[in-house]
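hey
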């Protein structure tokens, strides 16, 4: 399939690791100019070096530290993109991790921190880059969200509530910004990332391999496909939704969850 992404300009938040880094990799492979941001420049530099060592052409990659919760930091990033490229075609809002807590155990400060992170990691980049997106003839925003938005978990009550609110925001933006900008989301299930490798080292049985441990967890979680997702599989969904090949898709929530959703 021709995604028609060559020479497009994409901004990826949380681009130094995991799904964000895989999204950067796939976009570069499609000939996109990619601006990757994360809070730490050191992590971005390490990610760039890792891509280069793997044979990825990083000549179209710009890495700049940015805290998406700081308005001034996001504004500086948008100014840089505007000065260098004059537009943005794609914005991938990919920031934020899960918080394990029940209603009884979540303090007010933790509620405030979680809601602030989940909402403003989308709100501030979207607001800052909207003028540059409107210059594009095929503008797209993709929000990396979680299946928790539809299927909450009692041990993640704070994150589940925040994710549901973000999905409502995605739907609202898809209407308000149409037809100039398409807005979609992916809803992640369990994806193998650095946090699961850390948990493996802490929790695995003696002699148990990472693959064996993950397969056991996938069975416990009743994932129909029998395994965890891979970061590159989530990234592939992001890249498709961001591309002109998905030009008649907006307001959608694409589940990348191995079939674990209970919704029809």
């Amino acid at each position: 399939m021709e995604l028609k992404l060559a020479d497009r300009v994409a901004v990826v938040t949380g681009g130094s690791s995991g799904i964000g880094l895989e999204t950067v990799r796939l976009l570069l492979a499609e000939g996109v100019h990619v601006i990757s941001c994360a809070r730490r420049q050191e992590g971005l530099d390490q990610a760039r070096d890792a891509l280069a060592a793997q044979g990825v052409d990083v000549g179209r990659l710009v890495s700049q530290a940015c805290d998406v919760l700081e308005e001034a930091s996001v504004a500086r990033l948008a100014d840089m993109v505007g000065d260098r490229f004059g537009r943005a075609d794609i914005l991938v809002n990919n920031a934020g991790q899960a918080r394990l807590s029940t209603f009884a155990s979540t303090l007010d400060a933790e509620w405030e921190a979680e809601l602030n992170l989940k909402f403003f990691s989308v709100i501030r980049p979207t607001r800052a880059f909207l003028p540059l997106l409107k210059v594009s003839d095929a503008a797209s925003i993709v929000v990396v969200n979680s299946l928790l938005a539809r299927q909450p978990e009692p041990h993640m009550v704070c994150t589940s509530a925040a994710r549901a609110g973000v999905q409502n925001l995605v739907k609202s933006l898809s209407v308000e910004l149409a037809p100039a900008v398409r807005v979609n989301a992916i809803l992640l299930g369990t994806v193998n990332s650095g946090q699961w490798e850390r948990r493996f080292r802490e929790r695995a049985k003696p002699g148990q391999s990472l693959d064996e441990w993950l397969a056991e967890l996938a069975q416990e979680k009743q994932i129909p496909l029998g395994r965890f997702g891979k970061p590159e599989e989530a990234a592939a969904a992001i890249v498709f939704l961001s591309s002109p090949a998905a030009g008649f898709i907006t307001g959608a929530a694409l589940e990348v969850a191995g079939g674990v959703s209970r919704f029809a």
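The helical segments are 18-29, 41-53, 71-85, 108-133, 157-176, 194-203, 210-220, 231-242. The first strand starts at residue 9 and ends at 13.
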